[in-house]
UniProtKB/TrEMBL annotation:
Domain of life of the native organism: Bacteria
Gene transcribed to yield this protein: pssA
Organism: Jeotgalibacillus proteolyticus
Protein name: CDP-diacylglycerol--serine O-phosphatidyltransferase
A Pfam family reported for this protein in Swiss-Prot or TrEMBL: CDP-OH_P_transf
GO BP annotations listed: phospholipid biosynthetic process
Subcellular location: Endomembrane system
Molecular functions (GO terms): CDP-diacylglycerol-serine O-phosphatidyltransferase activity
Its EC number(s): 2.7.8.8
Chief location of this protein within or outside the cell: membrane
Membrane topology recorded in Swiss-Prot or TrEMBL: Multi-pass membrane protein
Gene Ontology cellular component terms for the protein in this record: endomembrane system; membrane
Catalytic activity: a CDP-1,2-diacyl-sn-glycerol + L-serine = a 1,2-diacyl-sn-glycero-3-phospho-L-serine + CMP + H(+)
Length: 228
């Protein structure tokens, strides 16, 4: 029972980070709101892989993952970009921002009903990547003109529902856990240095790293026991 729900705990944590991002936007803490989305990306990269490693993949888990993704990488980035780039346009800005979760939902639904998925390529940009890019744009918004952010937002919306083939990292022989965690922590520290807000960044970075090490150790021991 516990083993079956381990990936779901990562998925629900991803959803929680999406909610935290929205809450931080309401507090006008846009930098840390962006960090929450990036943290959600790391968790999202782990839940499916854990399910496959543990042999507990299920339809329930896949549907739960989609529901979490639409919040963390659809609604949260939309609220974030509205507050930082489109709020001055009023209701029009809301409608423009709202296109992001709309197109993201279409992207997720299309992925879920695809009966013959290609493991080497994604059709259209995944909502996780698109939401993460919105978060990164927000972090560095002081260096970018508003028109560039608006163009990038529109471009990502279109790419999510396009038929463009995006290479999947599943086919790349790299140590995915280590690479994802390392890049995330480096990005987190860079953002913390840039914003001067180390407290909340480290408060999430340290537990996430401990969680990563624990899961990695658990899987290594499991593989070792299976070989014996």
């Amino acid at each position: 029972m516990i083993k079956r729900n381990i990936p779901n705990l990562f998925t629900l944590s991803n959803l929680l980070f999406g909610f935290l991002s929205i809450g931080l936007v309401l507090q006008k803490d846009y930098q840390n709101a962006s960090i929450m989305i990036l943290a959600g990306m790391m968790l999202d990269s782990l839940d499916g892989r854990l399910a496959r490693k543990l042999g507990v993949e299920s339809t329930f888990g896949k549907e739960l993952d989609s529901l979490a993704d639409i919040v963390t990488f659809g609604v949260a980035p939309a609220v974030l970009i509205y507050s930082t780039a489109f709020s001055e346009f009023g209701i029009l800005g809301m409608l423009i921002s709202g296109l992001f979760p709309v197109f993201g939902a279409i992207r997720l639904a299309r992925f879920n009903v695809d009966k013959t998925p290609d493991n080497k390529y994604f059709t259209g940009v995944p909502i996780t990547a698109a939401g993460g890019l919105i978060a990164l744009l927000t972090i560095f918004q002081n260096f970018l003109p508003d028109v560039a952010i608006a163009v990038a937002h529109t471009f990502l919306c279109v790419l999510m529902v396009s038929s463009v083939k995006i290479p999947s990292l599943k086919s790349v022989p790299i140590p995915k856990y280590g690479t994802i965690v390392t890049l995330f922590l480096i990005s987190l520290l860079a953002v913390a240095f840039y914003t001067g807000r180390f407290g909340i960044s480290l408060a999430f970075a340290i537990p996430l790293y401990v969680l990563y090490m624990s899961v990695n150790l658990f899987l290594k021991n499991k593989r070792k026991n299976e070989r014996e």
